[in-house]
């Protein structure tokens, strides 16, 4: 972000472009999922995006907080709402503004992260046309210490009593720390868990890596992307990467890269994509998708 744009503005712009590409009226949306870990309102941003899009029928809108895995979880949530809840048209937005939460004196983190938004429209269809072929999702709270941005501990100790109640009145405003990351541990986690997740999803879909046209990973680190591709025997020409242009944009990275690949003609209707998100939580997951 330039400093003059809000995350909501980026998300709305991405949403409008996705709807225009699909030639779809926002008034026909049943659900809006805003996948973000950096909302500009502590209670979430999705309803404000619904308002900005001008949806007259008041579709449900809510946030999903899962950091760099957020967009994959949003896709799975959209499919679950459609398959089990009778929803027809779901807008999934991935958007994050991580530049607000980095320590600009720490080159181990500040040079890695960017701000962006991307979106896709997920629609109901007949079973034989279902584009979500399989998925695999996981969390490990034990590993959360390696990547996070918690409320400052010293402030928490001063603000709250042993039962969690505020000690002072009026309560002091708490703040979050900058992003803290153990890069070596996050790398080890990603190159171990992501290939396993993709292999599991492929097995559920009855496919092998040779059946997949494109590998689309969360754009966290080129070494991670290369290592995962190597472990899965994906040739570089089948790997989608735009990391060099935008950095790690968290929940926005997969839809941003997908949008560019589709608009450039690289990804075509009928192509099979193995997508995977991974990051803070720790959370990770993959989805095998047939585009179009």
Can you describe this structure?
- The chain is 32% helix and 21% strand.
- The protein is built from eight helices and eleven strands.
- It is α/β, with parallel strands linked by helices and 292 residues long.
- The chain is globular.
- It has a five-stranded mixed β-sheet, with helices on both faces. A four-stranded mixed β-sheet has the order 2-1-3-4, with helices on both faces. It has a two-stranded antiparallel ribbon with strand order 6-7.
- It has helices spanning 7-21, 46-53, 70-85, 153-159, 183-205, 222-231, 243-246, 253-263, and strands spanning 31-35, 60-64, 89-97, 115-123, 132-139, 147-148, 180-181, 214-217, 239-240, 272-279, 283-290.
- It has two domains: 7-128, Peroxisomal Thiolase, Chain A, domain 1 (3-Layer(aba) Sandwich), CATH 3.40.47.10; 132-145 and 178-291, Peroxisomal Thiolase, Chain A, domain 1 (3-Layer(aba) Sandwich).
- α1 crosses α2 and α5 (183-205) packs parallel to α6.
């Amino acid at each position: 972000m330039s400093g003059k744009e809000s995350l909501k503005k980026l998300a709305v712009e991405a949403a409008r472009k996705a709807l225009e590409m699909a030639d779809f009226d926002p008034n026909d949306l049943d659900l809006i999922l805003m996948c973000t870990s950096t909302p500009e309102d502590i209670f979430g941003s999705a309803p404000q995006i619904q308002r900005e899009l001008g949806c007259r029928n008041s579709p449900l809108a809510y946030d999903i907080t899962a950091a760099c895995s957020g967009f994959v979880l949003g896709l799975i949530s959209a499919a679950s709402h459609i398959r089990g809840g009778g929803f027809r048209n779901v807008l999934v937005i991935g958007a994050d503004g991580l530049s607000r939460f980095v320590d600009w004196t720490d080159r181990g983190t500040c040079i890695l992260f960017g701000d962006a938004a991307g979106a896709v429209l997920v629609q109901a269809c007949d079973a034989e046309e279902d584009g979500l072929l399989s998925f695999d999702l996981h969390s490990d709270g034990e590993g959360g210490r390696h990547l996070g941005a918690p409320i400052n501990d010293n402030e928490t100790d001063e603000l709250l009593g042993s039962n969690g109640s505020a000690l002072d009145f009026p309560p002091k405003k708490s703040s979050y720390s900058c992003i803290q990351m153990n890069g070596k541990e996050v790398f080890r986690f990603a190159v171990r868990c992501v290939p396993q997740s993709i292999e599991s999803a492929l097995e559920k879909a009855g496919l092998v890596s040779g059946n997949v046209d494109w590998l689309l990973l969360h754009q966290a680190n080129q070494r991670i992307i290369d290592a995962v591709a190597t472990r899965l025997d994906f040739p570089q020409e089948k790997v989608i990467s735009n990391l060099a242009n935008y950095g790690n944009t968290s929940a926005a990275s997969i839809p941003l890269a997908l949008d560019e690949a589709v608009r450039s003609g690289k990804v075509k209707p009928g192509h099979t994509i193995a997508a995977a998100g991974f990051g803070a939580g720790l959370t990770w997951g993959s989805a095998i998708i047939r585009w179009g």
